[in-house]
Structures are given as C-alpha cells and as structure tokens.
Specification:
Structural class: alpha+beta
Number of strands: 7
Number of helices: 13
Helix content: 40-55%
Strand content: 5-15%
Order of helices and strands: HEEHEHEEHEEHHHHHHHHH
Largest sheet: 5 strands, mixed
Strand order of the largest sheet: 1-2-5-4-3
Length: 287
C-alpha cells in the first residue's frame, strides 16, 4: 500500500481555501461579509502584492455573534478575542487546524462612524474575488485603497512608504473620490497618521492614540490615548476599568499554557510596575 502524501499545502493555496470555507459558512447563514487585505487586494493598488499569512473578513456587525457560532460549529476556535488583540477591539482571531488563522473584523481601525454605518458604506460598490472557485465579495477598489492606507498607520515600518507611494501616484479623479470616502468614514486622523500629516489633527480626541500607534510610545501613553479617543464617557470609563487587567489570552500564548493564578498575579504586578515607571519617567522629563 502506498504511503500517504504528507507534502504540506502551500500557504497561498491554504489561504484561498480558508477564504472559501468562511464564505460558504456565511453564505449558508445569509450573512454578509467582505474579504479584505492580502490576496484580495486589487493588483493595480499593490503590484507584486503578498498574499499575507492569514485571512481577513469584515462582517456585518449585527451578525457577528451568529457567524461566530457557525464557525465554531465548523472547527474554528477563538485564538484571541476582540478585547485581546489590539487597542481598537476591532477583530477576533480564529484558528482552524486545516485552514490556519482568520481575523474576523467587526470594524476597521481608524474609521470614526458607527460600525454598522461603516459596513454599509463599504458594502456599496463591492466587487468580486474568486477563492477556490467560490465567489467572494470584496470592497470597491477605492475603498480598498483607503483601507490599505488606514492599515499602514498601524504598521508604518512595513507599509508606510508603500501607502504614501500609492497615494502619490493615483490619478486626480481617484484622489478626489477616495478623499471623499475618507471624510465620509470620518477617518481623517488615522489617514493622516499613515501619510505623515498627523500634526494637522492635534486637537482631535483620537490624536494621541494614533500618534502612539503609528510612531511608537509607552503602554501607558497608548492606554491614555485609548481613554481620550473613547466616543462617550461610558466608553472611556470602560477603558479605564480594563487598563490594569491582565490579558489572559496573550499571557497564555507567552507561557505556552493556561495561566495559573500565580501567573496572573505576577503579570498584574509587572503591568502596574511598568505603568508606574513610565508615569514617573514622564514626570521627571517634564521638570
């Protein structure tokens, strides 16, 4: 009897099947989703684009709980939750033993309008991408360009120069349309951070957060930026309450096992100590 072929599946192929898999799950439940970033990006925006290492989808925010349930029924497991992954609480990461990692987005960092309104705007003018023979919806090329620049604000070392080059080489009519979309999404601050023009928005409540995210800074500065950027008092208070908490999912990944009580206590003390040192150091520099 011939031995089984254990040749690993190439990353590009696996990603396309992963996109197809989540699309089929969503379609059966009649849940709208847009495939974003990676291999779905229009080639005119990023010649020689890389496919990425995972799949990203932006889901109709009202249907996120339902899609989560459907995915877990089909072998997907939560790797990190919305509150674990980033300062924006924008995506939940899943892992499947065959298909790898997938980021399920309920919002896109930098977009200032309500999540549902943003999804409806991005759903308009959508296009098509075929993944493993399955038709998948993608946002319009203009929206892809805007999202690419916004994404670069969180990774300037890797994407900043490419985002600035993309914005510089577009046609005048494209720039007009895309600038209008940026304003419609109320994404001006993050967009400026990506293009090196953040100081124009020093008086905006999101300024400190995007300065820290795009240019680097302490964890304390990031949390203060998150508090200032909160759209309501209750949201700001919720951020204050979460600030000292230990992220158990991240700690588990660092330790390689589920954290024990002692592990959480040690991490909590380290977190508080770091915050005090950063705050004290900032006070010393101001003298």
């Amino acid at each position: 009897m011939d031995s089984l072929d254990t040749t690993p599946i190439s990353l590009d192929v696996r990603l396309e099947f992963s996109r197809a898999a989540v699309e089929v799950i969503a379609r059966r439940a009649r849940i709208r989703l847009l495939h974003i970033k990676g291999g779905t990006l229009d080639g005119a925006l990023r010649p020689g684009k890389r496919s990425g290492t995972d799949v990203d989808v932006l889901v109709d925010p009202r249907r996120v709980p339902e899609l989560h349930a459907r995915m877990t029924e089909n072998g997907w497991r939560v790797y990190s939750s919305f509150l674990d992954g980033s300062p924006f609480g924008h995506a939940q990461t899943y892992h499947h033993r065959e298909w790898g990692y997938l980021d399920l987005h309920r919002r896109f960092p930098g977009v200032g309008i309500a999540d549902q309104d943003a999804f409806e705007v991005l759903w308009q003018g959508r296009g098509c991408h075929f993944a493993a023979g399955v038709e998948c919806s993608v946002s319009s090329v203009d929206a892809q360009a805007v999202l690419f620049v916004l994404n670069a604000a969180r990774d300037l070392d890797m994407l900043g120069a490419e985002a600035r080059e993309l914005w510089a080489r577009q046609a005048d009519d494209e720039r007009v349309r895309r600038s209008r979309l940026v304003r419609r999404l109320r994404a001006e601050v993050a967009f400026a951070a990506a293009l090196g023009d953040l100081e124009r928005y020093r008086r905006r409540r999101e300024y400190l957060l995007w300065k820290t995210v795009s240019q680097g800074g302490s964890r304390t500065a990031e949390w203060w930026g998150r508090i200032k950027a909160a759209p309501t008092v209750s949201a700001a208070l919720g951020t204050v309450a979460r600030a000292p908490r230990v992220n158990r999912a991240v700690l588990a990944h660092e330790l390689g096992h589920e954290p024990r009580t002692r592990d959480v206590i040690v991490a909590f003390r380290r977190r508080i100590g770091t915050a005090l040192r950063e705050s004290f150091g900032r006070g010393e520099r101001k003298r």
